[in-house]
Amino acid sequence: MEEQKIEAKFFEGHVSTSKSDQALVLYDQSRYGELVGGKIKYSLFEALYLLEKEKLDVKLGKKSLDFDSFVSKSSKKDKGFLVKYIVFRDMRNRGYIIKTALKFGADFRVYDRGVKPGEDHAKWVLYPIHESKVLTWHDFSAKNRVAHSTRKRLLIAVVDDEEDVSYWECAWKRP
Predict the structure, then answer these.
(1) Cβ contacts of residue 10 below 8 Å, gap of 6+?
(2) For residue 28, what pLDDT band results from cuts at 50, 70 and 90?
């Protein structure tokens, strides 16, 4: 028997679903989404990942969105959406829980394997960048300061044209 997809609605900036048993199980097991009132609210990255894994049916009005239309809609607000999603997907496939981190001034926060948000703090702040983009020393320093001030490690994810991701961890050292 084929598993029924969770129905969700696309809003600007997030995707929401009613608090169904299926959505709650997914939340409890893997921390997809956030409980907000009587609904589960997914980041656009979480929703696209679950759409790609065929666990979520995302509707805009009455129309279901496919992968490409979801990326197109999401990229209108965030030009770097696809690069960030590639990193999100890679981290999730490696077994990490990854959440947005805009309030920290970062793209994502990443929890060590086996750690769920609310049980402990994230280990890293993560900044995805495409290999063709320039990251100045000023940008790098600002990112490192955010990581240091939030007591997290800095992780830079570099995405190449084949969608392979390389990770670089940076840390403050005292001689």
Answers:
(1) 47, 58, 59, 60, 65, 70, 73
(2) confident
Phi and psi for 30 in degrees, rounded to 5?
Answer: -130, 5
Provide the CB-side half-sphere exposure for 144 (13 A, CA).
13
Residues carrying an active site annotation: 111, 121, 152
Q: Is the pTM of this model over 0.85?
A: yes
Provide CATH code, domain 79-170: 3.40.1350.10
Say if CB 5 and CB 56 are below 8 A apart: yes
* Mean of pLDDT values over 25-47: 91
Which CATH code of 3.30.300.20, 3.40.50.2300, 3.90.400.10, 3.40.1170.20 fits the domain covering 6-74?
3.40.1170.20
Mean pLDDT of 28-36: 90
Q: Which single residue is written with the structure tokens 């991701």?
A: 165
